[in-house]
Amino acid sequence: MEPEELLNENRNSEDPKKDSPLLSLERDLKFFHESVREVAIEIMVEGLSNYPIFIAHQHELSLGELILDRHDLNTEWSIHASTLEEFVEKGVIKQVLKERFIQSYKNPNDFMCVFVVVPEGANFIYYPYPK
């Protein structure tokens, strides 16, 4: 899924003034990108995983480790750091789908893999680090 799909860009809406809450996620990811990249590199260098995953949410979550708290940073989204291995261990990604996930995983030096959790559900996006 492309970020534009989650952000509902170019979508005809009954209420054009109502923005997707994920527009605020894009703002926060731009703000967080340096910290997220540092954590991703640390996860890989320390040998914890070759597949860092960041979880963006606006409520309490018991997956991964909190690295950026929206309350402390006065942002709309909190970010947890996790790994593919934890997602498989906790059953978020089924063992039989692990290889498919690895095949679709984008270069972690260029993209942050973000598992976005919203009331309607959750999905993975790959958000590019600014150049």
From TrEMBL:
- Top-level division of the source organism's lineage: Bacteria
Protein name as catalogued: Uncharacterized protein
> Which species does this protein come from?
Mucilaginibacter gotjawali
